[in-house]
Amino acid sequence: MTHIVILGSGFGALTAIKQIRKSGIAAEITVVSPHNRLTYLPSLIWMPSGLRKASDIEVDLGNFFARQKVKWHQGSVTGVSDGGRVVETDTGSLSNDFLIIATGGRYIQKLPGIKEHAIIPCQGSAMGQQIHDRLKAMEGGTIAVGFGTNPKEPKAVRGGPMFEFMFGIETMLRKEGRRDKFNIVFFNGSETPGIRLGKKAVSGLLAKMKKRNIATHLGAKPIRIEAHKVVTEREEIPADLVLMMPGLTGPLWLDNTELPRSAGGFVQADEKCRVAGWAQTYVVGDTGSFPGPEWLAKQAHQADLQAVAAVANIVEEVKGAAPSHDFKSELICIVDTLDTGIVVFRNTKRTLFFPSFKMGHWAKRMFEWMYLRGYR
User: Fold this and answer.
1) CATH homologous superfamily of domain 2-105+250-318?
2) Which residue spans of the chain are classified as CATH 3.50.50.60?
3) Structure confidence at residue 245 (pLDDT)
4) Which residue, among 147, 233, 242, 265, has the nearest Cα to 196 in the 3D structure?
């Protein structure tokens, strides 16, 4: 029986499992990850307001693995060898016929002071809770929100959630009657932050910041974060709480392998999600560097689409055919503000932008319920 090993248990990995079983091929599936738990990262934005807590967005995958007849190998990946056929972990090695790499990316934390004086929100539910607790303890002050990128691979940015954290906090403070006691500032090294969403989206986001009295500091890169301030190439921004999302790079374990790497440190892949030069080895999601439009996003939806293509190609290989499926490039984003939403859709043919979708917040909550329902 064909043995497919999947590294990771996030969005791309879980979609790959479902697609393998849906395909009907006879395959043994082994998932390698340190925890059999999914943290639904898109809902971290609701933790500062208390709308969600960790137990709401963390799902035990034990039942899902059992239903899908998946063997879970508990451990952290330390290397891949023999052209992809052997995976090394801190709890032993295992072989495979096909390999899907989906261990996610890693935040670049080289900015001086980022570890000591800032919170990186999307590192997990513990960070969401920390933001919640800090805000509840603050009687007033300045909240600074920003994001960076990988200078060697500009696509490796995750800015959308930071707009959501910022707008959500502003809405929460207004509803609590505390907004007048806080200054909220947004900082970014680019004059057009979030440009991958499209020019109209950037204009809409900046207009919403102005309307909500959120100050902007654009076009000057942050050079360090100190206690109570963000220092950029141009100025010092006072801050009592700093939320900063740095750019992404590949996971650290890649350094122990001969896997081909992109300039930004990711596994180099083609349009079919195949690892360049490695037979029967695929990569999906944040671990990979893929061809595509300049706006190709590092987001769960894109990881899902890449997993669909990767599995379709594996199925063809199992059946003795050549892989023929390219992944779909598509961006779907609802920038949630707790009371409404900004909707952006992009594919290779069109870009759609809706600056104020009243049901956006509830649509996002409904999608969360539907998505997690399949794993609970």
Assistant:
1) FAD/NAD(P)-binding domain (3.50.50.60)
2) 2-105+250-318, 111-247
3) 96
4) 147
Pull the structure tokens for residue 87.
């995976």
Rounded CA gap, 249 and 105, in Å? 6
CA 295-368-135 angle, to 5 degrees, is: 85
Number of H helices, E strands in the chain: 9, 24
The distance in angstroms from the start CA to the end CA of the chain is 28
Which residues, 6 or more positions from 74, have their beta carbon under 8 angstroms from its beta carbon? Answer: 33, 34, 35, 36, 91
By residue count, the chain amounts to: 376
- 13-17, 337-341, 345-349 — which one is most confidently predicted on average? 13-17
CATH architecture, domain 111-247: 3-Layer(bba) Sandwich (3.50)
Torsion, Cα 115 128 305 293, to 10 degrees, reads -50
Record the pTM: 0.95
Question: Using CA atoms, how far apart are residues 156 and 297, in angstroms rounded to an integer?
Answer: 8
Question: How many whole angstroms separate alpha carbon 317 and alpha carbon 319?
Answer: 5
